[in-house]
Amino acid sequence: MIELEGLTKRYGEKLAVDDLTFTVRPGVITGFLGPNGAGKSTTMRMVLGLDHPTAGDVRIDGMHYDQLKDPLTRIGALLDAGAVHGGRSAFNHLLCLAQSNGIPAPRVHEVLDTVGLTAVAHKKAKGFSLGMGQRLGIAAALLGDPDILMFDEPANGLDPEGIHWIRTLMKSLAAQGRTVFVSSHVMSEMALTADHLVVIGQGRLLADTSMADFIRQNSRTYVRIRTPQRERLLDVLHEDGITVVECGSGALEVEGEKAELIGELAAGHQIVLHELSPRQASLEEAFMRLTAPAVEYHAHSDAAVGRPRQAARAGWGADRGKAG
Ligand SMILES: Nc1ncnc2c1ncn2[C@@H]1O[C@H](COP(=O)(O)OP(=O)(O)OP(=O)(O)O)[C@@H](O)[C@H]1O
């Protein structure tokens, strides 16, 4: 378990982490989300004692990181996969970590096997791809067989097979009763991985809730309809006082959970429906709605590439439907 209480970090004028209080519990995967610069990495560094809080406290199973004996056997972390001596082989890198933490050498072979690096174990780390480096960082996190795992953007640089592998690995670690705390910007991946979410913006806590509740509370539900008798259905819905939004793709959308009502109205007027699907917006939309006021760094890519408005809207709609 990781417990934060009023955790605060100030760098000069910049309040990077602002009075964070939450608990990361065992047996579930807790996703840690926030826009760029929200304070995720700073928070994770404070968990590991790499940065000292300006105020507040963070404890690992009741202790500060520097009080832990053989810390790698209590908490394993992937923060910066590049933090490896490039001249060392993967095997030697892990062996050094093992020896300094009282971990038996055969464990190095086990974790290399787990992350799929056995074939390149004696190659120098400086020749590793981004994905191989991530795998080496994950091997280091697993080395001490710790009960608590913390990963900052673990899927960064991994190919689709690697992303599937890290997701499965994290799920099995949580199923074994371990505490898994993971940050990511890839919302579609987070939606498939995390059970619980902690969301921060500009250093402050915005949400600490289950994935299902987060999406329910921060996004809209709607019904998507397709019909070859579009005008008739529009008239019928209009007469019933139901507001309909026309999508670029030819589908219609109605806000709320009204699928049964619409189905009955259509049947009553003998209108053929090709689709009537209740939808819930994706984690991505929920995240963007919640964090929009806390986003510090905005790009203006639409103006730069001259993207047509209609196309942009269709893309947004397509993605939004994924979680439904
Ligand atoms: N050592 C430092 N000195 C000064 N400012 C810092 C330092 N480390 C982080 N910051 C600032 O603190 C804020 C939080 O940064 P942090 O890296 O924790 O955010 P993040 O949520 O991990 O961002 P990202 O998603 O972009 O990785 C940022 O404004 C950053 O510029």
Automatic annotation (TrEMBL):
Keywords: ATP-binding, Nucleotide-binding, Transport. Gene3D superfamilies: P-loop containing nucleotide triphosphate hydrolases. It comes from the Bacteria. Pfam families: ABC_tran. InterPro entries: AAA+_ATPase (IPR003593), ABC_transporter-like_ATP-bd (IPR003439), P-loop_NTPase (IPR027417). Residues 304-324 are annotated as: Disordered. Residues 2-227 form the ABC transporter domain. GO terms for molecular function: ATP binding. The keyword Membrane does not apply. Belongs to the ABC transporter superfamily. This is ABC transporter ATP-binding protein. It comes from Streptomyces gibsoniae.
